[in-house]
Amino acid sequence: MVDIWTPEKRSWVMSRIRGKNTKPEMTVRSLLHGLGYRFTVNGPKNRRLPGKPDIVLPKHRALVLVHGCFWHGHEGCKHFRLPKTRVAWWREKIRKNRERDARNLAALEALGWNVVVVWECRVRPVALRESLAEELASRISGREEESAMVAEEAAVYGVPAP
Ligand SMILES: [Zn+2]
């Protein structure tokens, strides 16, 4: 491969490819920060726990995983559509991702972690950020199950698109 990038640029591109520091995750991090939570993104637990979770809140024994709707196969989500070519290959790829997610989730819960999965489509709409912050707070403290609300439903009530 021809080296067309500076090391900095390459590392940025690779971080995008690996899904680290993507925009939805940064949004969630800033919401958590605003809520006053302390968390690690590159600590020993981020590196060693099953699935290398993005955001670890040690004090709450909670993890926040920000899942891209496509790669993690968000069922019933408009952002999860298989490409029109190599359909079988993609279906298998996403199926394996989902299997791995389920395995990691089970392992993390068995270790006593409260795993908060946040889908990308829940993070992106700016108009829903305030309610997302509330939802994060209650899910981190274990008071509430995952909200089924996705962006499409909010649009019904006339919330402007970001
Ligand atoms: Zn989604």
Please tell me about this protein's structure.
The protein has 7 helices and 3 strands, in the order αααββαβααα. It has 162 residues and is mainly α. The chain has a single domain, classed as Endonuclease, Chain A (3-Layer(aba) Sandwich), CATH 3.40.960. A 3-stranded mixed beta sheet has the order 1-2-3, sandwiched between helices. The longest helix has 24 residues, at 87-110. Bound molecules: zinc ion. The site of zinc ion (ZN) has 8 residues, from helix 5. Zinc ion (ZN) is lined by residues 69, 74, 77, 79, 119-121, 150.
The CATH topology corresponds to Endonuclease, Chain A
Structural class given helices, strands, pairing? mainly alpha
CATH superfamily: VSR Endonuclease
Tell me the major beta sheet.
3 strands, mixed
The average pLDDT score comes to: 84
Bound molecules: zinc ion
Strand content: 5-15%
Report the radius of gyration as a whole number of Å.
17 Å
Provide a count of the helices.
7
Low-confidence stretches: 148-162
Secondary structure: elements and pairs:
Layout: H1 7-18, H2 23-34, H3 44-48, E1 55-57, E2 62-67, H4 87-110, E3 114-119, H5 120-123, H6 129-140, H7 151-156
Parallel strand pairs: 2-3
Antiparallel strand pairs: 1-2
The structure holds zinc ion.
Features:
disordered C terminus; 7 helices; three-stranded mixed beta sheet; 46% helix; mainly alpha; Endonuclease, Chain A; binds zinc ion; 162 residues
